[in-house]
Amino acid sequence: MNITVYVSRDSGALAVGAEAVANAILAQAAERGITVDLVRNGSRGLYWLEPLIEVETAEGRVAYGPVDRDDVPGLFEADFLHGGAHPLAQGLTEEIPYLKAQQRLTFRRVGITDPLSLDDYRSHEGYRGLTQALSMMPTEIVAAVTESGLRGRGGAAFPTGIKWNTVLQAVGEPKYIVCNADEGDSGTFSDRMVMEGDPYLLIEGMTIAGLAVGAEQGYIYLRSEYPHAEAILNEAIARAESAGYLGDDLRGSGKQFHLEVRRAAGAYVCGEETALLESLEGKRGQVRAKPPLPAIHGLFQRPTVVNNVISLASVPAILDKGPAFYRDFGMGRSRGTLPIQLTGNIRRGGLVELGFGVSLEELLYDYGGGTASGRPIKAVQVGGPLGAYLPADQFDIPLDYEAFIAAQGTVGHGGIVVFDDTADMAHMARHAMAFCAVESCGKCTPCRIGSTRGVELLDRIIAERDKGIDSAQVTLLRELCDTLLNGSLCALGGMTPFPVLSALEHFPADFGLVAETAHA
């Protein structure tokens, strides 16, 4: 009987040597006359343990990591193929505390199945949601998604069911489903993990969305820096078409849905839905004025659903298990689960999927283990490069859309970047302004010009902070932020003030200010 060994081909694992480890395992097995079945799975999200090897045993999968290719001969000597003891042994994978305590709905298959095996996908509850949807009326599908409480996971948190219903009721043919897979926020990788580790989940979710609103064509607008995801998605789409899960006749139902991958333009602003649509049409990625909304006049001026990867990947479970099952996770108006990505100066970086309501304190210490440097955590940025910097006295805030808005922050895409007490938050505020200046599409003056003036102003503040700064500089910076916040066409300019103002609010000493001046 062959022994099954799992080594991730996730981009994060490949970056730290997973390919070399996989090759070393095959070479050592051949040298010793042992036959192994090597499965290249997705990552479990335990990135501090990558490259992670798992071995199928009678008790379950046993994990070893982080494994270097030079460790492989020693693993064979320790009989790791039968769960033998070794310094890199982590025990049963499912019993690793970091993983065991999670509530995995969207990521329940990632790292477990062969990403491109349809049989593996179906044997782990795949395509049950689509089967259910094929027996329902469009209004029933939309009602189920609405009842689940699912909100957009890309950052805006708009109720998905309301968006779908708007497209369903809109006049105009054809209609489109567009997946925003241009994952550009700092500290985020959950979209990529799904696309590389469970691509049929996204395909299934988009197909259900098409049935719900009457769309027969979908596009995945994929971040240009994700070549592995692109290859896997294209192969998965081809296999789904061959098996009748995409194409002119979905599983003999007479209904159709077609799907294509389109490589993104490489601009952060194209993560904004209207700039994305402009780019998808072959134009320069610039923000459109709203209204009209994309749900009414979207791709090629036709009604269009634009959702991000995690939003669409959440849909199959809702159709399969019912909206109440999904709604029972979370708190308040934030229902379901959120894939949280722990990055930056963190000891145990990786992905954690939990229901809304978990605190930053629990995430940073119970899961993340504190900083990698061993120094105190000074600040975390939640929600990407435009998210607020939160100090330690706000780590009790529950991960909830409304709670973060009340704290003048944003949950965004669920990325958390950690900084220890050596970080200079004035420089981080400048970085946010500089990022906006570089990534601005240039269409509106507050973002295009305001961000450039903001960089210049912060440069003056930083240069003079050791001399005793003129508080008029801070007043001018606040006024500039107010202009960006209220005058920008989209969230790029509109949210750039969040990190700047939060840095001023919570870390005034880094600007050469006393707290009273910062609040003035």
From TrEMBL:
Query: Which InterPro entries would you find in this protein's record?
Result: NADH-UbQ_OxRdtase_51kDa_CS, Nuo51_FMN-bd, Nuo51_FMN-bd_sf, Nuop51_4Fe4S-bd, Nuop51_4Fe4S-bd_sf, Thioredoxin-like_sf
Q: Say if the entry is tagged with keyword Iron.
A: yes
Q: Which Pfam families match?
A: Complex1_51K (PF01512), NADH_4Fe-4S (PF10589)
Identify the domain of life: Bacteria
Q: Which CDD domains match?
A: TRX_Fd_FDH_beta
- Kindly list the cofactors needed: FMN; [4Fe-4S] cluster
The NADH-ubiquinone oxidoreductase 51kDa subunit iron-sulphur binding domain extends over 426-471
Record keywords, A-Z = 4Fe-4S, Iron, Iron-sulfur, Metal-binding
Keyword Hydrolase set for record: no
Q: Which residues form a coiled coil?
A: none
GO MF term list: 4 iron, 4 sulfur cluster binding; FMN binding; metal ion binding; NADH dehydrogenase (ubiquinone) activity
In which family does this protein belong, per the annotation?
A: Belongs to the complex I 51 kDa subunit family.
Supply the name of the protein: NADH-quinone oxidoreductase subunit F
Q: Which organism is it from?
A: Modicisalibacter xianhensis
